[in-house]
Amino acid sequence: MKEHIKTDILIVGAGIVGLAVARAFTLKHPQLKIIIIDKEPRLAEHASGRNSGVIHAGFYYSPDSLKAKLTLEGNRLLTQYCLKNNIAINRCGKVVVAKNEDELKSLDELKRRGEKNGVPLEMVNEAELTKIEPNARTYKKALYSPSTSTVNPREVVEQVAKDLKNKADIFLNEPFLKRDGASAVLTRTKRISYNHLINTAGLYADKVGHEFGVGLKYTLIPFKGLYMEYKDHSLIKKHIYPVPDSRNPFLGVHFTCTVDGHVKIGPTAIPAFWRENYKGFDNFKLNEIFHILFNEARLFISNSFNFRALALEETKKFYGEYMKKQSALLVKKIDISLFGGYLKPGIRAQLINTEDMSIVMDFVVEHAENSTHVLNAVSPAFTCAFSFGNFVVDKVAEKFIIG
After folding, report:
1. What is the pTM of this model?
2. DSSP 3-state assignment of 288?
3. Where is 270: in which H helix or E strand?
């Protein structure tokens, strides 16, 4: 017999977005009872604990996008939160470098977007770049972002969860199993009735949404991200990124300065075979393989967002030597022999519109009768967590009766 409990707000998924939504509810509507459920026995087991920890500035995104609206404010709020709570933060900044004349046009477009989004940026020449990051290599110009930082994402998640103590109940090892009537769900040991449900289930957000008749045209495709450590921590002091390919949502192999001063390259964006395909056959799910391969075959045939070239390029990166050579193009001096092995992998849950096999670049939030579903919370969702949380709570308050 399952324990029956009631709540005003039920949040499915205790990743950084789910916790940030809960935090926003406690700040804006403290009278509400809040329950958060998660299928894992501990926090930050997936994207929230496996991302790069980079706090992005917000200049990649089209000015009319939800990402553009939320990233600048998210950067400010998360940076303030880390400083206030003594969470280690490396405010190193970042440079985006070009390889040739064609990439200078893309660099100018990034600068234009950043200016429209209100992001502090500076276009610098080669001599000025050398003063900012001596080892960065560019062609004529580079873009400097002083507000890009790095944190330990797990540390942030754990602090937010700590802040929610006595304000919300977090039930771990309680997966969403299915709906049970119009306003209740079943978990491993509980039946939870709610007034409003928020779906922040990450890799399984589409599956949860489909239970409510939401986002039926969407499915999530997993891409595996691998990083590799560089053993000489003095190589660089700032993040170094290439100019991204505007046709896909990935930023290319780049150098990241971690919060503790280490240097790593990555990530890959290798198509994964199941949603939690981190290592070997861990979390193996046969039914997911067939579903993902079917959709990846459709992507390959339609060549949506240049998928064929992307898949080939990313598969090459699975072999470390290729990824090392790609990273070497971004710096003046490097010793390839100082690269270590692969670090803890992550999975990017990328939303696809199955009607036209297009990739969904922006955040997607949809509503049902008494539920709200965050269907696409890809990068920079970690940066945007607090602004995203405020956005979701304000939308719920606007569309539904809160009380």
Report:
1. 0.96
2. helix
3. strand 270-271
